[in-house]
Amino acid sequence: MAAGNRLALLGLVLGAGAVLAAGLGSSFLPPGRVVAALAGGGAPMDSVIIWTLRLPRVVLAVLTGMALALAGALLQRVTRNPVAAPSVLGVTDGAALGVVAFLWIFSDDANALTVSIHWQPLAAMIGAFGFAALVALLTLLDPGGRSPLRIILYGVALAALAKAAVTLMMILGPIYRANQALTWLTGSVSAAHWSDAATVAAGLALSIPALVALRLPLRQIALDAESAAATGLALGRTQAALLSLSVLLTALAVSQVGAVGFVGLVAPHAARYIHGQFAPGYLVSTALIGGLMVLGADTLARIIAAPLELPAGALTALVGAPIFLWLLLKGRRAHG
């Protein structure tokens, strides 16, 4: 199947999943009524349910999945390590720590923020960039070299540090702060608003020109350091640019839905298997698969134990781990 056809098929599957997800809830709406409401027709109550209650959640799930998947693809390319991902390198936990610290510091005794919630994405970015900078600094100062394995080890250690800091905040802080922190540890799309989706959409839109400008360096950086430099690539600047973009996308997603893991690890692998990492549209394929992962996890979270809702972040691991194992087994057979 041609690359364009594969992208079209992924887009159709994502669109169908979004329509199905928008119809699920306390009152089920069949796909025909959902499509009618999206087109501006149908019953007025259907339009209210879809546009006000359900569609913001569906759109936010898709957009955050896309952001996390792209962040993972960029990290794997920069480190030339197939197990690199925002969660593995401590970026996700650093962003979550930034948000939890923001909630912990700026919440009053009435469980209300004393500053605008619009500062929350900035807190996530500070946490994500801080931990990414620590990983980079420790790697640069390491006399044992800058191998991808050492980058992963530093990331795992710093991720554990971030988790420990969040746990201490939950223990030492009042109960209402612990409840707020727990939301970010699990990851959830349940409190979605159109403003949240618009923030992530704006960040993704702003990243597109950067990704287009870096399309050739993204191919060059897949080579070893000497070969990449021989092609004329400014390796250090390219790595810094791609790492910064990956951290930005991670912080953007985590600031809205919490520490949803596994998406940035699995989606790039799935895209490589389905689409090929050097085929045109690889990043588009990665983004679509990431959107499908979070949308699927959130949909399952709503229906698997209804009327209770499970955290989508837990289900991304539940869904993603078997897929990742299957991809590893397929790759081993291919090289066996």
From TrEMBL:
Coiled coil: none
CDD domains in UniProt: TM_ABC_iron-siderophores_like
Keyword terms, alphabetized: Cell membrane, Membrane, Transmembrane, Transmembrane helix, Transport
Subcellular location, principal: membrane
Domain of life of the source: Bacteria
Gene3D superfamilies (UniProt xref): ABC transporter involved in vitamin B12 uptake, BtuC
Compartments (UniProt record): Cell membrane
Annotated transmembrane regions: 55-75, 87-107, 119-140, 152-176, 241-267, 279-304, 310-329
Bilayer topology annotation: Multi-pass membrane protein
UniProt similarity note: Belongs to the binding-protein-dependent transport system permease family. FecCD subfamily.
Protein name: FecCD family ABC transporter permease
Organism of provenance: Chelativorans intermedius
Organism placement in taxonomy: Bacteria, Pseudomonadati, Pseudomonadota, Alphaproteobacteria, Hyphomicrobiales
